[in-house]
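INSTRUCTION: Work out how this chain folds

Token vocabulary: learned, describes local backbone geometry

RECORD BEGINS BELOW THIS LINE
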Amino acid sequence: MTTTRTGYLIQPLPREVLAEVRRTGLDVSGRPAERSTAEGEEPLRCCLRDAVAGEPLLLFGYAPPLPDGPYREVGPIFAHDADCPGPEQVTGYPADWRGRPQVLRAYDRRGRIVGGRLHDGEDPEAVVADLLADPAVDRLHSRNVVYGCFMFAIVRG
């Protein structure tokens, strides 16, 4: 990876994971993905924006990027049910999700939680920089405050 202006990269849902769910209709646990039509504002993990009413969606179980171990979990996420271009940028916090309160969980290389922080979404870069300043932190996972769902990963750039 190259160093970025922000010092980190945003990792949305990997395209190959979504392609496999679309191809097989099954999630990481072998359960059927649910197809639906967006009501609007569902957080899309493929392109890191909220859905627009009427868009075709998939809801399925996903295991965020962590080594196998006790902290690896499966949770529900939304993604487009059709090809999408992905996020507009991956070198900074998703623009469409600024102002959205989130929890940032910090993980070490073994996939163990080593910290975290609730932030209000107003200055996420400061919280990300503070958490990544700890050399024990390998990656961050952004989580929805109310539902606890995985939103995206943040890795050093």
User: Anything to note?
Assistant: Residues 15-24 form the longest helix (10 residues). The chain is about 10% helix and 30% strand. The longest strand covers residues 56-62. The mean pLDDT is 93.
